[in-house]
Structures are given as structure tokens and as C-alpha cells.
Amino acid sequence: MKRIAVLALLCCLTIPSAPDASDVYDTQLNSGIRNSEAYSRLLIRQAHDNRQEAVALLKKALAASPDLPLVYFELSMHSFSPSVTGILDSFDYLIQGIDAYGRNFLWSLTLIGSIFFAFVLSFLLAAVILAFIRLVPDMPLLIHDIQESPRRAGFFAAVVALSAISPLLLVAGVLILLGIYMKRSDKAVVYAYLVFLVCSPLVFKTASQIAQASSSGALKAIVQVNESRGNTYAASVLRNSSDIPSVFSYALAVKRQGLYSDAIPLFKSLLARWPDPRVYVDLGNSYIGLYNFDESKKDALEEAARYYSQSIGIRPLSSAYYNLSQVSREMLDFPKGDEYFAAALSINRTAVAEYRSISGRTPNRIVADETLSRKEFRRYIRERFTSVFTFGMSLLPLSTISALALGLIVVFYLLNSRLRQKAYRCRKCGAILCDKCEKGIMWGQMCPQCFSSLVKLDEMDARERVARILAIYEQQRKRRARIRLLSFTLPGVSFIFGGRVLSGFLFLWPFLFLALLPVTNRVCVPDSNLVSHGFFSWSALFGAAVIFIVSNIITRKRLVRGWR
Fold first, then answer.
1. Dihedral of the CA atoms 444, 445, 450, 456 (nearest 10)?
2. Using 50, 70 and 90 to split pLDDT, how confident is the model at 377?
3. Measured at the alpha carbon of residue 390, what is the angle toward residues 388 and 396, in degrees to the nearest 5?
């Protein structure tokens, strides 16, 4: 009920009361608004409560907000039926909903932010889990090496001490020590984590910009105006702003609210700083508002035409030619109007079709406004949000973390190329061996006892050999039981414990990414009442379930074959 009340209040603030959806849509178009998301959400709520009229209500919501992805996803769900038409309609709405993200910057920004945070967090969490799981079988190997060569203790301690500067480096240090005992292909996981740390300044900068942009009221106001979603919020938030995108958006919001006399000086002052052709177009549109179809104010039409012509002199825009065609027809110069209209079509036929689709006898509909592009929204984010946060991951500058990670890459490479004598486990009984304490590596990396009982049958008494074989079987049975138990926790954990680190990581990381995406979709969206990525959340959960099932199937098959 609280959420419905919030939506109702927003609807009342943004949309004048109207008897039906068509009147609501006309009212918002008259104010330069093409999308009323609050009103559409109320209709979606009504559709949930009234299943029989759900499709009709959702189509009204679509008419009020043609760029809202949620409406398309709701229509996809409610229009689905076990028939060819129902399936095709549902799929078509689904594709349109995904495509609507390209027309809704705030929705796409929050979705990209959710995906980015889930991607990074899942990678870090997978690395931590991998290190924790491998500590159990590999820590005894490390201790054995230190006991055999005490000089290594100082080196290993130095790596850990260096890594303790940051939790990120601590994980890196642990992975390096454990990576010594990994197979050659599995070492790629350690290198991947170190490369991630090298790129950490860029990662944290991107995360900081997304976090700041998602919660920025100024950015929200700018986007709302330029994507024709509302004017009231921008008119209040951007009033005292001085940067060019904010001033342009504020002037456009004031103009669409019908305050043309206030908008004109705003656009003129902006021209002194930013002589962009779009400013000339919107300044001319402000004069159209002053005209307001009053025959005694045709001098305002001439002023508008002058500014449209100046815009064309800088860069030909389809909106400028289209607006000149409208002005020419208002002044009864139809041949000139047709000439300008043809010029607009030659520049951008699609844009002209959009202008015509909302055309009407009101100042905000007879001519077309120019707005900022998504590229300029992204530039605004890069220039405005420059603070970089470490989120408590490091007390040192991120550039230091990156430099130390480069050093750790060199250290890990040298360890693998020069540290040839290292402990290993017998593949049968799991006993710890090394070249220093054994005469030589037995065939198949087996200890002498297992080698004698399984290969050199004449070197061991039959009773001892049977006892040894039974002990090996019992040890491997317990190992397989642990692997089977771990397979029910997280996909890939059983692989990591069983020594297939890279394969396990490639199961674990995607699973954690998909499992975390619904969480980041909720946490990383400040206006969770107004933004919802439910389709992607449910799709992610389905994908996580598929990975879990596939991982378990592969684990079972490997266990049947003896986990080879």
C-alpha cells in the first residue's frame, strides 16, 4: 500500500487529472512529456489486481510510457498463451522491452551498474572461495616445504606481509602461495586475479561513477527533461546550476512548462557560452510559445524562423528544417513549407516521422525540440563525478595496488619457473612427498608404498598389499564423499577441492554472478519503487539454477569414473 501511495502521489504531481488514458497522453504531450512512468505504474498495479482487464490496462500504460521497459515485460507475461499467436506476441513484447532500454537512460544505467557490480563482486567472491577451499589440501604442502627448506619461510612471510596492505592483496598473496601447487592450466586463475588488481584503478573509478550517477538528482533531472519524462523536478533541482547540460535542461523544462518569457533569456545567455545549433532551435521554439497561435503576434514567428535559419547555418538539423516548414505554413507560405519539409526528410526521415506522430496545435507539439544525447549524458557523468572510492578495500592509493600487483605477477612467474622442488601428494593415498625427502618421483606420482602395492607386486607381502589397497580405497572413498557433499553447496567448489581449479572457477564465477545480479538489481537502484529489472533478475536466477544442475551432473559422472 505504501508503494501504491507513493506512485499515486507522483502521478498527481506529474500528470494532470484526465478522464481516460488518451486524454492523459494528450495532456502530457502538450507539456512536452512523452512518458509518464508514475501513471503507467499505477495502471500496472491495477492490471495485477484485475487479471481480466490486465492486457487492456497494460496497453494504456504503454500508451502513456512507450519507453518504459517494464510495461513491455508485463505485456509479454500477460499476453502469453499456449498458441502460436500468444507465443509470438509474448516474444515480440519481450524484444521490445529489451529494446526500450536503449531509449531509457536511467534504466539502462542502473542495469549496467547492477551487471557491473555483480560481475566484480562475483569475481572477488569466487577468488576468496577458491583460496579458502584450496587452503585445506594445500596448506600441509606449504608447511612441508617450509620444514624442508627453512629459507622459504622468510620469502613466503614477505609475500603475505606485502599482501596484508590490502584485503585484495592479501587474497592475491594467498593465491600465489597456493598457485605454486596448481597444475599449469589452473595457474591461469591466479594470473587472472592479478591482472584484475592491475586494472583495479579503472574498476574502482567505474564503480564510483556508477554509484554517484545512480544517486544523482541532477543527472536524473537532466535525463527526465531530455528524454521527455518530466519538467517539474528539473525546474526545481536545476534552477541554480551553472554547467551547460544543466542550464540547457533547465531552460528546456521552463519552456515546456509554458514560461516562454523566462526561457528565452536563459537560452540567449547559454548561446554566449555554447553556440550549439540545438540551442538556436529551442530558442526559436520559445518564440513559437510566445506566438501561441495569436495572429497579432506573428513577429514572434519571424523571430523563431530567424533562429532556425541560424541553426541551419551552423549545422543542418532535421528539426530546424521541420520547424521552418511549420512556421512557413503558419504564415501561409505553403510552397516554402513543402520545401523545408522535404529538406527535413532528406536529413532524417525517422525523426520527421516521430515529429509528425505527436504533432498538434499546441506550442510544444507544433514544432520539435532538440535535446541532449545519451553520449552527452555519459560525458556529463565522466566530467561531473570524478571522486574515486576504494569502498574500504585499501588504505593506499589504487595506483599503488596496481603497481604491487604487477610486481606480484613477476614474483609468481619466477616462483613457477625456478621453484622446481616442491611438495606434492601421492595420487592414491594422499601422502605428502617431495624430491628432497624421497629418492625420486615414482611412476604416476605415487608414494613408494602405493607403488609397491599396485605396481611392484613382488616387493610386498600379499596380506600387506591387500591392507594397503583397502586403505587406498577407503581414503579415496572418503575423498569422493567430500566431493559429492561439496557439489550440493556451490557449483565448482567440488571441482576446486578435487584439484580441477580452473574448471571449478569457471563454474563458480558465472553462478555467483547470476546469483548476485538480483541482489545488485535491488541494492544498486536508489529508486527501487520506480525502477525494476525483474525480467533480468528472474532470468539470472534461472541461469544460476541451470549452472547448478549442470555442475552436479558433471560431478556425478566424474565420480562414477573415479574422479579423473
1. 50
2. very high
3. 105
Phi, psi of 425 (to 5 degrees): -105, 145
Question: What is the rounded CA–CA span in Å between residue 385 and residue 216?
Answer: 10
Question: 45-49: which pairs have CB atoms within 8 A and are 24 or more residues apart?
Answer: 45/4, 45/7, 47/74, 47/78
- What are the backbone angles phi and psi of residue 149, rounded to the nearest 5°? -135, 85
Class of domain 2-103: mainly alpha
- DSSP code of residue 458: G
DSSP conformation letters of 102-156: GG-HHHHHHHHHHHHHHHHHHHHHHHHHHHHHHHHHHHHHHHHHHHH-THHHHHH
Query: What pLDDT shows up at residue 181?
Result: 85
| Grid cell at residue 34 | 512523452
Dig out the grid coordinates for 411 from the structure. 614474483
What's the pLDDT at 215? 86
How far apart, in whole angstroms, are the C-alpha atoms of residue 375 and residue 272? 23
Which residues have a Cβ under 8 Å from the Cβ of 107 and sit 6 or more positions away?
68, 69, 100, 101, 531, 533
CB within 8 Å of 24: residues ≥ 6 apart? 15, 18, 36, 39, 64
**Comparing 367-376, 442-451, 505-514, which segment has the lowest mean pLDDT?**
442-451
Rounded mean pLDDT of the chain?
A: 84
Q: Does domain 227-373 have CATH number 1.25.40.10?
A: yes
8 A C-beta contact, residue 429 and residue 472: yes
Taking the C-alpha atoms of residue 42 and residue 30, their distance in angstroms, rounded to an integer, is: 21
Helix ranges (DSSP H) in 419-492: 448-454, 462-486
Question: Do 40 and 61 contact (CB within 8 A), yes or no?
Answer: yes
Q: What is the pLDDT of residue 542?
A: 94
Domain boundaries, the chain: 2-103, 227-373
Give the least confident one: 299-303, 429-433, 545-549: 429-433
Query: How many other β-carbons are positioned within 10 Å of the β-carbon of residue 124?
Result: 18
Residue 259 pLDDT greater than 80, yes or no: yes
Of the chain, the percentage scoring pLDDT greater than 70 comes to 83
Distance CA(191)–CA(224), nearest Å, equals: 44
Task: Tell me if domain 2-103 and domain 227-373 are identical in fold.
Answer: yes
Joined together, the cell numbers standing for residue 145 give: 616445504
| CA distances, 287 to each of 250, 258, 299, 323 (Å) | 17, 11, 9, 12
Verdict on whether the full-model pTM lies above 0.90: no
